Amino acid sequence: MQYGLTGLINFGHVGFFAIGAFTSALLALAGLPTPLSLAAAAATSAIVAWPIGLVALRLREDYFAVVTLGFGETVRLIVTSERWLTNGVQGIPGIPRLFPADHGAAGAVATLLVLCICCLGGALVLQRLARSPFGRMIEAIRDNEDAVRALGKNPAAFKTRVLALGSALAGLAGGFYAHVITYLSPDQFTALVTFYVWMAMILGGVGRVSGAVLGALLLMAFLEGTRFVRDALPGLVSEVEMASVRLGAVGLALILFTLFRPQGLVGDYSRR
Amino acid sequence: MNLLVRELSKAFGGFHVLDRVSFSFETDGLLGIIGPNGAGKSTLFSVLSGFISADRGSILLGERAIDRLSPQERAQLGLVRTFQVPREFHHLTVRENLMAAAPHQPGERLIPLFLAPARVRAAERAVRERADEVIAFLRLEAVADLPAGRLSGGQKKLLELGRALLTEPRLVLLDEPFAGVNAVLVGEVIERIAALHARGIGFLIIEHDLGSLARLVPRLLVMDRGRVIAEGEPRAVLNDRAVRAAYLGQTTP
Question: A199 with A123, same domain?
Fold first, then answer.
């Protein structure tokens, strides 16, 4: 929605993801039920995004990219240094799971189910937006912002809303991440996370909700799935080397996609 | 209502693109603006529509000074421009381009979009009808469902005009509406503009096609090197010595 439909280059996804993760983790540890802490995670990320949108969206789009990249890094540094809140580099252990009563397979399946339902819900909301008059207007902004202004509409207002909405989803994702991993530390929130989002989108297809979903699914299946490949090839590469090999393979896939299938797997917005 | 332009000046570097331009215009009228290339006509439109701010001078729309308003605020007051080089939303279809231009759509706001879908659908139907009227009016039926990026130059010009009409304008600034439009269609566009004018919409029109323009507007404003050098009835203006000199590239004595 941000890049494909509106043309916003947001390099700070990880910042909103981190805010969501820490918000939900800290609130849950303070005793709030997880559904509420997750809602608070989404809301906090959106609220933080709002002023950033108001200020940064006055800038040209490439500067917006720089500001958001800096924002993501700033969030990571705050999380690292504000020990009273986030326990610094030692991180926060023991974050409650979504289904704390059930530690077995049933809990994992229930968690997976909740995540799938939320993903589907998020995708449907985005699909509804994309096909609405709101979606038409953000696509118009992507195609020609001055023409939108000449027609009496304020692009900045639409872009701020898009940024806040996308950040709410990133915050929600961060919240789920916290409750699934159950341990948070600053080194989980490097700019690489932002670029995973971009990789997934480019692989799947820019400007298509189905592209984002499919791209994320494939990218994560590949990144997580290939963890076991090393076990099948004992002694060939070390654990650390394998991580680099996997990223290298994703990089190669991105290059090949850009060369031979720039529209991604499901096609992009230009092929309607 | 009256559009009153007083002593507008704009310089880029040391170059005076607009030099104390003044004129007055009834917003339901028709006025042609002509002049050689580089006379400052398009810059005047950009200043009037708020895309460029003037160095000096004032613009009054009725009683209201609009100098400091943003382009979108001016458009909301009914002062809508088109661009010399068409700026269509190239991935949207022609119909979607027009629908995007309609004001006050509840579906463009998030809360009604999710909480009042019936209202959004009703508004969307109404906007679609208006877009289809404009499509028929501009004879764009055959391309209505094509992405606007695939239109010809002339069709894009018509789409620019159409989008301006969808905003419910009071006064439209048309920047070379006939450029790239074939001769048969120019005649039709002139008829269309005259018909819209009869409905109370005013037009300021920059155009190099003097013959076509003279058929349409009762009054011409001639610019040269940032200044207004003549104003009046087309025939008188076109016979004016200073105007002929400007167009033929001679210096005035």
Answer: no
CB contact under 8 A, B91 and A272: yes
**What local confidence, expressed as pLDDT, does residue B58 receive?**
95
Q: Where are the alpha helices (DSSP H) in B116-231?
A: 117-137, 153-166, 183-198, 210-216
Contacts with B179 (C-beta within 8 Å, 6 or more apart), sequence order? B84, B153, B157, B207, B208, B209
Give the number of A-B residue pairs with CB atoms closer than 8 Å: 99
> Can you read off the two tokens belonging to residue B130?
């208006």
CB contact under 8 A, B71 and A149: yes
Look up tokens 């119909």; give the residue: B95
% residues pLDDT > 70 (chain B): 98
Chain B environment of A154 (Cβ under 8 Å): 70, 72
At A8-19, the pLDDT tens digits run 999 999 999 999
Q: Which of A145, A166, A189 is the last residue of a domain?
A: A189
A74, A20: one domain: yes
Nearest to B72 among A128, A134, A149 (CB): A149
User: Hey, what's the torsion of the CAs at B48, B50, B54, B57, to 10 degrees?
Assistant: 50
The pLDDT tens digits for A146-159 are 999 999 999 999 99
From B87's Cα to the closest Cα of chain A, the distance in A is 6
**Do B75 and A149 form a contact (C-beta atoms < 8 A)?**
yes
Report CA-CA distances (Å) from B115 to A50, A184, B119. Answer: 22, 36, 9
Q: What angle do CA B21, B25, B26 make, to 5 degrees?
A: 165
Query: Rounded to whole angstroms, how far apart are CA atoms A20 and A38?
Result: 8
- List the single residue in A with minimal CA-CA distance to B123: A133
**Global confidence as pTM:** 0.90
Query: Which of A128, A144, A161 lies at the smallest CB-CB distance from B87?
Result: A144
The residue range of the domain holding A21 is 1-189
Are B71 and A150 an interchain contact pair (Cβ–Cβ within 8 Å)? yes
CA nearest to A95, candidates A21, A168, A35, A45: A21
CB-CB under 8 Å, B163 with A140: no
Q: Do B51 and A139 touch (CB under 8 A)?
A: no
CB contact under 8 A, B101 and A144: no
Whole-complex ipTM: 0.91
Collect all residues of chain B within an 8 Å Cβ-Cβ radius of residue A7.
none
Please, what sign has the CA dihedral across residues B6, B10, B14, B16? Answer: negative
A168 and A223: one domain? no
Q: Which 3 state secondary structure label does DSSP give B220?
A: strand
Q: Is residue A208 domain-shared with residue A158, that is, in the same domain?
A: no
**A252-258 long-range Cβ contacts below 8 angstroms, 24+ apart:** A253/A203, A254/A199, A254/A202, A254/A203, A257/A202, A257/A203, A258/A202
